[in-house]
Design brief:
267 residues, 5 helices
C-alpha cells in the first residue's frame, strides 16, 4: 500500500523503527527528494520516513530539497509530520540531552526556497503559531510518559549553516530571548503549513552554542556524539508519538487553505 498518514523527517537512525519497510520514489515538481521515501508501520499506523540529509548525509542544511520532501509526503496522503532534529542551546539551563518542544520560530536563513507559491498569484497564510498545537501536546505527553521531562515552548532560531554560529551571534540570539538554534527547521515548517499539514518539531539539544560557554566552540564531532547517545531514546519517543497522534485532525492546520485560490499546480 503506497500511502501513509504520518510522515517523519529525521536522521538515518530512524529507519529501524519502521516495520514492513518498503521504499518508493516520488516524482515532484521540485525535483527528487533527499532519498526514496521509506514506508512502513509503527503501532499499526502507516508512516512515511524521509532522511532529511539523505541516508549518507550528503545534503548540507542549505541544500536539502525541502519542497520536494514535503510535497512527496503530502502526495502519499500524509497529514501529520513529526520532525526530530539536533539543535544547540542558547541557555545554560538546557544542556546536552535536553528534549525541547518549541512553540515559536525565527528565520535567519538566506536564499532558501521557502514557498510553493512562486507563481499564480499571491497567497498569504497565517504563521503566527508555526507548529501544530495537537502535535505539540502529544510530544509533551509522550515524553513525560517516558520519564523524559521536556522543555515546553521556547523559540528556535534557524540559521543558514552549514557553519556554526560565532560567539557574538549566539550571544545576540540569546539576548533576544531565543532558546534554541538549528539549521533545518525552516523552511520545513512553513512549507508544511502551505500544504495544510500538521508539523511538530522534537528537538534534542546536543550542545551549548558558542557564546553560551567558554571553550573551543561547537564541533560536528560533539553534535554527532550526543545525538548518537540519545538516538534510541528519541526514536522510541517518536514511535510513541506516532501511536498517540489523533486519527482525526481537529486542530486548525487542515483549514489554513480554506477559501484560498491555489495555483493550479497545487490543486
Amino acid at each position: 500500500m503506497t500511502s501513509a498518514e504520518i510522515g517523519v523527517i529525521g536522521g538515518s537512525g530512524f529507519y529501524s523503527f519502521l516495520d514492513g519497510l518498503e521504499e518508493v520514489t516520488v516524482e515532484t515538481p521540485y525535483g527528487p527528494t533527499s532519498d526514496p521515501i521509506a514506508l512502513g508501520e509503527v503501532a499499526g499506523r502507516r508512516v512515511a520516513f524521509v532522511p532529511r540529509h539523505g541516508r549518507d548525509h550528503r545534503f548540507p542544511p542549505h541544500r536539502i530539497p525541502y519542497r520536494a520532501n514535503l510535497w512527496a509526503l503530502r502526495s502519499l496522503g500524509v497529514g501529520q509530520v513529526l520532525a526530530p532534529s539536533a539543535v544547540g542551546s542558547l541557555t545554560p539551563s538546557y544542556g546536552p540531552g535536553t528534549l525541547a518542544v518549541p512553540d515559536q520560530l525565527v528565520d535567519r536563513t538566506s536564499g532558501r526556497a521557502q514557498t510553493f507559491y512562486d507563481d499564480g498569484g499571491a497567497v498569504h497564510l497565517s504563521f503566527a503559531d508555526p507548529y501544530c498545537p495537537s502535535g505539540r501536546a502529544v510530544a509533551l505527553d509522550t515524553a513525560r510518559s517516558r520519564s523524559w521531562e521536556p522543555v515546553d515552548g521556547g523559540t528556535l532560531v534557524v540559521i543558514e549553516g552549514p557553519r556554526f554560529s560565532t560567539r557574538a551571534e549566539s550571544r545576540w540570539f540569546a539576548a533576544q530571548g531565543w532558546t534554541l538554534v538549528g539549521m533545518t527547521g525552516h523552511p520545513e515548517a512553513v512549507l508544511a503549513r502551505e500544504l495544510a499539514l500538521c508539523y511538530t518539531p522534537v528537538c534534542l539539544v546536543t550542545d551549548l552554542d558558542a557564546g553560551i560557554e567558554e571553550g573551543e566552540g561547537v564541533t560536528m564531532e560533539e553534535v554527532f556524539k550526543v545525538f548518537g547517545q540519545n538516538v534510541e531514546r528519541l526514536r522510541d519517543l517518536v514511535g510513541g508519538m506516532v501511536a498517540a497522534l489523533p486519527a482525526e485532525r481537529t486542530c486548525p492546520c487542515p483549514h489554513v487553505l480554506d477559501g484560498i485560490t491555489l495555483p493550479s499546480a497545487l490543486l
